[in-house]
Design a protein that fits this description.
By secondary structure, the chain is an alpha/beta fold. The protein contains 12 helices and 14 strands. The protein binds pyridoxal-5'-phosphate (PLP).
């Protein structure tokens, strides 16, 4: 058979995060006890009252196609949440609900980016950002950030990266993988820059909003005179332990929302009716379960920082949000256990997978080849065990 797959497939890569999860699963299928520190999702179950709402939706026969941008009551619930938590005013026609924030991002990129358009992305960034830009035939313009600056970029660096071709600036705060959280003052400095460049749209991914170790979440959409150019992206996956339910959303200018609705109308239509009904409950009820999960992440963060600091040669900035650490492991490059030589982050991750049976994600996937991402969205027991094994395996590298 002569199979001719499209050239489109050559333009982008499979997510490294999913690849690592797959490799871990394959080892586990062989009976090996793998500690998964590559996880990008809360290890908690969805809160009971949200599950109850879904069961009720099934019994109430919410089983038909849904409006492309989502049920009106869910879009109203998103507006209620944005006012309650972020003091932001949006109308339902500015909201598009999608099959996860990943689809929200894809819709927005396809709606905004033409061939050759430049999209500025600070490193490190979530794996999917650069690949979506490539799918749209845009050009990724990276701004390198450094661990020494908590992986933050400055407003001056942002401005220096802007050219007449810049179409979009895209970032997450809290950031996956670094855990960086931008303060209100830092976002205000970005807003000052964007005021000078009215053709740039800002994609602000706020999916880790509730997992924040330094205080209240700040959105760049709070600056009124640039708000119309901000596409705020959020979803229920991380804050409500609902990754499998696939609910993400954007809040944006009505014209951008319409454009995203048009894209989504041809790809998937409206997302799952049952998940949407559960989403209304998640967004409009007590946030206590979310706060409890965040408290547990705070405890784990403290412990994992203790464990990692006990290992020589790893430099680990403290994450201010999300549930990852993103240490610089480059001091191990060039070292060997006599059999395997670790020359880069992919080697480092594979060495840990094969020798410590711990999965992680190489920093190359996030645009930062000196680092490796380790999740702490796993039980305290697994975290302790994983880091004990990592320490032993790294001690063999000379
Ligand atoms: C920064 C960031 N944005 C978006 C997403 C996508 O989330 P969802 O499950 O809603 O598609 C993720 C998931 O890992 C993420 O880390």
């Amino acid at each position: 058979m002569i199979m001719q797959l499209s050239s489109f497939l050559q333009r982008f890569n499979e997510p490294e995060t999913l690849k690592m999860a797959k490799l871990g699963r394959e080892l586990r299928a062989k009976g090996i006890d793998v500690v998964d520190l590559s996880l990008g999702e809360p290890d908690f179950d969805t809160p009971q009252h949200i599950k109850d709402a879904a069961v009720k939706a099934i019994h109430d026969n919410w089983s038909h196609y849904t409006p492309v941008p989502g049920f009106l009551d869910l879009r109203e619930a998103v507006c209620t949440k944005l006012k309650r938590d972020n003091n932001l005013d949006y109308k339902p026609e500015q909201i598009v609900v999608s099959t996860g924030a990943k689809q929200s991002l894809a819709n927005a990129i396809l709606a905004l980016v033409d061939e050759g358009d430049e999209v500025i992305i600070p490193t490190p960034y979530w794996v999917t950002y650069s690949e979506l830009v490539k799918i749209a035939r845009g050009k990724v313009v990276e701004i390198k950030s450094m661990a020494a600056n908590q992986f933050k970029i400055s407003a001056a660096e942002l401005e220096a990266a802007i050219t007449p071709k810049t179409k979009v600036f895209m970032f997450s705060s809290p950031c996956n993988p670094s855990g960086t959280v931008y303060s209100k003052e830092e976002l205000a400095a970005f807003a000052d820059v964007f005021r000078k460049y009215p053709a740039i749209t800002i994609l602000s991914d706020e999916i880790y909003e509730y997992i924040n170790f330094v205080g209240a979440h700040e959105s760049i959409a709070q600056f009124d005179d640039i708000k119309d150019r901000v596409v705020l992206i959020n979803g229920l996956s991380k804050g409500f332990a609902m990754t499998g339910w696939r609910i993400g959303y954007i809040a944006a200018h009505a014209d951008i929302a319409k454009a995203c609705e048009k894209v989504q109308g041809q790809f998937t239509s409206g997302t799952c009716s049952i998940a949407q009904k559960a989403g209304v409950t998640a967004l409009t009820t007590d946030l206590r379960p979310t706060r409890e999960m965040a408290e547990e992440f705070t405890r784990r963060r403290k412990r994992v920082l203790e464990l990692v600091r006990d290992i020589p040669g790893i430099h680990c900035p403290e994450p201010d949000g999300a549930f990852y650490i993103f240490p610089d492991v480059s001091s191990y490059y060039g070292k060997s256990d006599g059999q395997t030589t670790v020359t880069n982050a992919p080697d480092f991750s594979m060495y840990l997978l094969n020798n410590a049976h711990v999965s992680s994600v190489m920093g190359d996937a996030f645009g930062e080849p000196n680092c490796v991402r380790f999740s702490f969205a796993n039980s305290m027991e697994k975290i302790e065990e994983g880091w004990k094994r990592i320490k032993e395996a790294l001690a063999k590298l000379k």
